[in-house]
Each structure stands twice: as structure tokens, then as C-alpha cells.
């Protein structure tokens, strides 16, 4: 995968089979386009399809200190049957838990098609010895995790030590074995769209299967301009290398309206082939209920009360 360096607007590395231009980001144009796409009016048929797609792309998440095996079991049951009153509502993509809860989630989801995702590698700070982070990743995979969400080394990135960032992500990818690696950029800490684009490129060059916006533990998380910035990086990386990388949007996404706006951004930037759980995820704990409520309303003409659905 090689060592990466940045010189001017170029990012060079063995993983790129040449040189990939990182370039700068026009913040004004990016924000204007993101606002236009996220606010686009969606026709009824497209909205129905979008709501169903949003469900199928959700990583239903619980990352709390008070998590218990019972709570994880209930979340797994909810992941399999999002609407207790309507079996036609599809299951979510995955359930995301701490490493200590992986065995419980795996036991309930085995053979269902819903994947087990786990944060690992000293989530959410990433501030631990690399060997300890890698051991946690290997342990989560051994316990049954299909996907691993790690955090990028923001300190190394912001101080220009791109070789460290690249090599740590590459090591995490190797530690995952057959599990998919999602790399969290924690965009709220990076300070600029230029830094977000650079972090995206380094993570992809190091072998990450998915790049993800946020841990959800900071006030600033996913935003439409951030999603667009990362989607454009994925598009440009794919054009240069031919490799497909997924996008996970996480942190602060609570309503179906927000989710539909992000689907519009992804569709217009990456194309309809990215509108699939293999390439797009929403990391959320509360989004599912709002989407299910909207689906019930569109099916029955009645808007149900939020209390009619389980509280995760």
C-alpha cells in the first residue's frame, strides 16, 4: 500500500499506482451545491423508494456506557423487524455495537443477513497504542463482527504526518481480515473541507472499504457539505483507480427529510449504483423511527405517534 506524501496538490503513493491530485475545495461552491441538492423536492414515488432505501442502509447503533446484552438483543430484533405492524418494511443493514457486545449481537443475527458492525481501535478518540488498537480489532472480528469502524489519527493528519495516517489505516485493514473496514474521519475536528478531502484520499489509498463522517460523539457531525465533499473524493478516487469505496454518514441524522437529502447528494455525485447498502450507510440510533413513521403515514394516511414505536 506504500507510504504517502503530499506535495502541493498531489498525493503520491504505491496504492494509487501513480499520482492522484488532491486539490483544494471551493467551500462556497460546495456549500451552495450541497444546499441545493439536499433541499430538492422529491416526487411521491421516489420518496417511497427513498424511505425504503434509507431503512436498508441504516447501521442501527448503540454506543453507550449503559449498553447491556438485553438492550443489544432488543436492538437486533428491531433491526430485523423495523415496523412491528408491517412485515414488508425491510431489515436494516447492520447493528453497530461496542466490541464487548459483539458476541451478543452475533448470536441474535447469525444467518439473518443483517451484519454485525463494531467500533474498535480505541473508539472514539483513537488515542491508544497502535498494537492495542489492532488487538481490539482482531478481537471484535474473532467474536463475530462483519464490519469494523475505526477512527483516523486526526493528530497525525493535522500535523502533516500522512505516512503515519496511511500506515495505521493499512494496518487496521490487515487486522480486519475478511471484515470490511470503515474509517471515521471525525470531520468536525478537521477544520476545513481541504482537510476532509485529504483525509478521505489517504484513508481510501490505505485500503479502507468505506469512509465515514463522524463518531457521533461531537456536536459537529454529518452535514450536507461534508457529505458532498467526501462523495466527490470517492468519485475522483474511483475515476483514478477503478476501486469502489463506500460512504457512511453518521452523527446528527435524525429525520427522514435529512436522509432523503443525503440520498439526493449521493445519487447526483456518485450515481445510482451507490444507492445500495453495500456502498452507502447511515449510522443512526433515532433515524429509523422517523422513517418508519413516515412510511406508515404514506401507507395509511394517518400520522402515528412517535410513542407507537419502540424506543431503542
Name the overall outline. Answer: globular
**CATH class label:** Alpha Beta
The main sheet comes to:
8 strands, parallel, barrel
The tally of strands reads: 11
Describe the structure.
This protein is of the alpha/beta class and 312 residues long. 44% of the residues lie in helices and 15% in strands. The chain has eleven helices and eleven strands. Helix 3 links the parallel strand 4 and strand 5 (94-97). Helix 2 (44-56) packs across helix 10 (256-270), helix 8 runs parallel beside helix 9 and helix 9 (224-241) runs parallel beside helix 10. It is globular, with a radius of gyration of 19 Å. Residues 1-10 and 12-19 have low confidence and may be disordered.
Properties at a glance:
single chain; 312 residues; alpha/beta; TIM Barrel; eight-stranded parallel barrel; three-stranded antiparallel beta sheet; 11 strands; globular; disordered N terminus
Summarize the structure.
This protein has 312 residues and is an alpha/beta fold. The chain is built from eleven helices and eleven strands.
List the helices and strands and how they pair.
Layout: E1 5-7, E2 10-13, E3 18-21, H1 27-38, H2 44-56, E4 58-61, H3 69-80, E5 94-97, H4 102-109, E6 115-119, H5 130-142, E7 147-151, H6 154-158, H7 162-176, E8 180-184, H8 193-205, E9 210-212, H9 224-241, E10 246-250, H10 256-270, E11 280-284, H11 287-300
Parallel strand pairs: 4-5, 4-11, 5-6, 6-7, 7-8, 8-9, 9-10, 10-11
Antiparallel strand pairs: 1-2, 2-3
Helix pairs in contact: 1-9, 2-10, 2-11, 3-4, 5-7, 8-9, 9-10
